[in-house]
Amino acid sequence: MNYDLMLRGTLVTAKKDMMIYYRKAPVYIFGLILPTFLFFAFFVGRDLDMQKYFPGFLAMSLFFTASSVGPLIIPWEKQAGTFERLLSLPLNIPMLILGDSLAGAAFGLFISTIIFAFGSLLVGITAPIGLLILLPFFFIIGNVCFAAMGVLLSSPAGKVPANIMMLAALVRFPLIFISGVFVPLSEMTGAGQVVAYFSPLTYLVDGLNAALGQEAVIGAGWDLLALFLFTIIFLAGASYVLKRKAMKGL
Amino acid sequence: MRELRKTFGKVKAVDGVSFEIEKGEMFGLLGPNGAGKTTTIRMLTGIFDPDSGVIEVDGKDMAKHKLGSKARMGIIPEIGNVYPDLTARQNLELFAQFYGIGKEERKARADRMLGDLGLKDRADDMLRGFSKGMKQRVSIGCAMVHEPDILFLDEPTEGLDVQSRRLIVDKVKELNAKGSTVLLTTHNIEEARRLCQRVCIINKGKVVAIDSPERLRSTFTEVQSVEVSFDRKVGCDLFQEKCVASATEYGDKVRIYTNDPDAVIDYLVRLKHERGLKIVSLQVLGPTLEDVFVKLTEGSR
Prior knowledge:
The complex is a heterodimer. By secondary structure, chain A is an all-alpha fold. Helix content of chain A is 77%, strand content 0%.
């Protein structure tokens, strides 16, 4: 195995994505504007305990921003005719997947850090420092996990970015309603709670609740483990699908 | 490469293709549309794997050393597949970085390449405003910026203006002169004849001939022709003699294919007297590489 070549290929792929796709309108529409509207729709103007709902909102914005870059890259490259050339470079499919995921995760990390900074100034953070130390771990694993999910969604894509953005929206919207963002996990009962455990977002919401001193049902350790496992599944799944669908639309 | 095969559904795109390319050679891969050229190139450049067969680069099995082999290659696709949202310089530097060239060196190489390709004054413009020829020049720069040992060109001059075509051909010749091996696929038979030391003609996924252009020409003595130009236009249907295999118009000339040029000349002189024509030019031609190509790929449509 040539680890130097693999690391270089992955990082340059991530750099290329940052140079090109951070400037694309769909990234801002689906990654920033949409969660902002959802925030206004559900949180503003209601007599809610904002400290209680802040971890859920933070998880939701992280989820949307991290997963907004990935769905765009592969179909956009196929449409521009650059994807085939990319495959002829000293790269392989897992390196492409990892590079695309890193680019999505970096975007999510940057935006969610800003949202956290402003949000904590507005809401006020009361969690002890011992718990806050968990926050960077959840930010990193959460962003990589949902960026990988975004890439997985685009891996069977042809060359029409709009089709994949629609599919991504179809997958992401239901997840925010079943993952304890609007209805805390502790208040869910029956089938709703069972379904919630199948959503990776549930573990981020629960983990951020733990890190920000709110009520956590699952526990931070299990949340981190679950997010890690979902990340592996998304990365492996995206590689598997893209290996079979790489030439679709070319 | 040995016994390379690739099937898509029920279609055998490449069916047991084998050939070797010497180090430093300029090698042409010719064939009609759908012959399997692009599929062959895609397998050789690692875009996808063959169903069976072996590709070796310097004796090393590419399947086992894929990344290392790809790092030694450069590919110039038919369409200028470069990033339209980046500038010419950013594209060159990005590709150089994929091949592991350090920061200072890649800046210097990008500068040099932009100068060589006549793009110095557009270096910091986004490619989306470039013409097809300019994009293709950037594409060539991206394929050559790491000075590859092996260069693949897939129809590189298709649809380009004369200046861009010459620039590309000169750049490829320059790299070849420095020792790089070049594999060229083209529909431009004359270009292949001028540039390549050997050509391989494939048809329906199989190799039908492989040799130097001149040797291929010399093996097809039956495809001789007599090219004649009269002082006024005559139609091809005029040439209905037994010694005439077929006749085709080429501008103001008519090319008459035959296996007996002497008989055709006698016939043309007779025709001239009978019809009161005046011969402006008369030439006996051997088979062109295009004739050989057409002969070998007959019935592929």
